[in-house]
Amino acid sequence: GSVFAHLVQAPEDPILGVTVAYNKDPSPVKLNLGVGAYRTEEGKPLVLNVVRKAEQQLINDRTRIKEYLPIVGLVEFNKLSAKLILGADSPAIRENRITTVECLSGTGSLRVGGEFLAKHYHQKTIYITQPTWGNHPKIFTLAGLTVKTYRYYDPATRGLNFQGLLEDLGTAPAGSIVLLHACAHNPTGVDPTIQQWEQIRQLMRSKGLMPFFDSAYQGFASGSLDTDAKPIRMFVADGGECLVAQSYAKNMGLYGERVGALSIVCKSADVAGRVESQLKLVIRPMYSSPPIHGASIVAVILRDKNLFNEWTLELKAMADRIISMRKQLFEALRTRGTPGDWSHIIKQIGMFTFTGLNPAQVSFMTKEYHIYMTSDGRISMAGLSSKTVPHLADAIHAVVT
Ligand code: PMP
């Protein structure tokens, strides 16, 4: 018999498993609102025009080679990524007290940052929002950190539980790491206001809590790269330390290229240099060095003023389509006279709406309406179109009446 005969079948990933179930459904009206990937009005994946142009430029350049990148990845990409998230005029960049390493998208950046902290930071506990993206607790546990949660979402208002958040961070042991969603919180779509961010910053700095920003949606929430980076820039402006994980999956549509970056903002250039030397020791035995193609695409776009501007327009168009889907779904429920307050659909922001539907209701909608979503009631607004909004509104109406 096989030495692996004792293995039990592992469950599907709760998010990716939704697509597996969707693919098996032969219904012509089936609708996949599970996975967080952008779709056009026609329901198709989108490759940005500016990405096509950048790739063409790379292909035409016959001097390009396929050597290994350094352990830290493409150096120009790292510099441009730091500038994109912190702003061109950031004091941390000017003072050269930041290190940025290319990682395997947002997930890889979180994992490398987590392993670095587990190895070199005095506090091993990381606080994550309740609820959060399902991969967060697994990433940080495997990185060697202890995961605890802080209150974030209030099911009664389908908004922020700000009091609970302040209480939980206020009682966290000094120095604890706190994971913060920079914008477009996943799965709730609920973000603090700028005033609330300022209060969070003051509390965290007064207690020496270490901010670890997860920025998977810069530009995708509001349509503006600068607006969505504001909370991070507030923390950097006070001169304190923080970590930032960036992903280009959503905002450049580079999902499968696995391109992202981890930045660690330090208090001096000297410390930043030593931090980078230790990051290399984390990365080398994990995957040696990151891939070259995605980072090259990003660098071509970020370094060229015209391509950069073109990108911001395409990004804004994606964000606007999602916002328009929110309005259309909200209107469709209003027209049907669906009981309940659905204003959270237009108040929440980013890729997802946390509908408030429970697992039994989700399961009813899948069975009767062939609508697929995660059992927590999260729907991907990017998976909707003007054509499919009525079907979803019918299903929600049926399940709550
Ligand atoms: N963080 C959050 C909150 C996310 O929603 C995602 C994508 N679903 C990621 C990180 C990482 O995605 P990726 O590894 O594809 O960049």
Model description:
This protein has 401 residues and is of the alpha/beta class. It has 15 helices and 13 strands. Strands 2-10-9-8-7-3-4 form a seven-stranded mixed sheet. The radius of gyration is 21 Å and the shape is globular. The model has no long low-confidence stretch (mean pLDDT 96). Bound molecules: 4'-deoxy-4'-aminopyridoxal-5'-phosphate. The site of 4'-deoxy-4'-aminopyridoxal-5'-phosphate has 12 residues, from α5.
Topology at a glance:
Elements: H1 16-24, E1 31-32, H2 49-60, H3 75-86, H4 91-94, E2 98-104, H5 105-120, E3 125-130, H6 135-143, E4 146-151, E5 153-154, E6 159-160, H7 162-171, E7 177-181, H8 194-206, E8 210-215, H9 225-237, E9 242-247, E10 259-265, H10 269-287, H11 293-303, H12 305-336, H13 344-347, E11 352-354, H14 359-369, E12 371-372, E13 378-380, H15 389-400
Parallel strand pairs: 1-12, 3-4, 3-7, 7-8, 8-9
Antiparallel strand pairs: 2-10, 5-6, 9-10, 11-13
The structure holds 4'-deoxy-4'-aminopyridoxal-5'-phosphate.
Quick overview:
With 401 residues, the protein is an alpha/beta fold. The protein has helices at 16-24, 49-60, 75-86, 91-94, 105-120, 135-143, 162-171, 194-206, 225-237, 269-287, 293-303, 305-336, 344-347, 359-369, 389-400, and strands at residues 31-32, 98-104, 125-130, 146-151, 153-154, 159-160, 177-181, 210-215, 242-247, 259-265, 352-354, 371-372, 378-380.
